[in-house]
Amino acid sequence: MNRKHILIPLDLVHGSADALIFAQQMALETPLAITLLHVVDLNIALTVSTVSGIYAQLYAESEAALGKLAKLFFGSEQAARIVVRFGKTVEEIVAEAKNEGADMIVLCGPKPAKGLQLFRKGTIHRLLRRVPCPAIVLPQREKSSRAISRAPSEEAIAFSRAMITAV
Hints:
This protein is an alpha/beta fold. The protein is about 40% helix and about 20% strand. Strands 3-2-1-4-5 form a five-stranded parallel beta sheet, with helices on both faces. Mean pLDDT is about 80; it is low at about 145-150.
């Protein structure tokens, strides 16, 4: 069976547990290559001497956090490819998906507001206009890192199982 490649962009701040649960459930049913991606988007002016130290620290902290999530959700840090990039969030996610041939992007985002969403300018909306593969945006239910440790919701499990056949 051909391995599907799932890209999971994580901001490491907001509740992203359902994206990880989704991939975890899919991995039980079909062989997956999973990439956990964190993009550090620095929009601050820094001196050259401070930049390298801050980048090194942010890279190490982000890589460690992704490693812990890989171990928690997929059994080991090696079970998922861990990528930390610096740059503009949307551009880096699109580049990673194209460069690595992602079959699907799974992420969590705010619950959509009612009305026409086509012209919204948030990160999720900009990303969805540019993705090179199908993307699933699961509703973000909690804005707390504690969401990572909670058990999978019945809705997330049911949705995951339904999507496995669609990939």
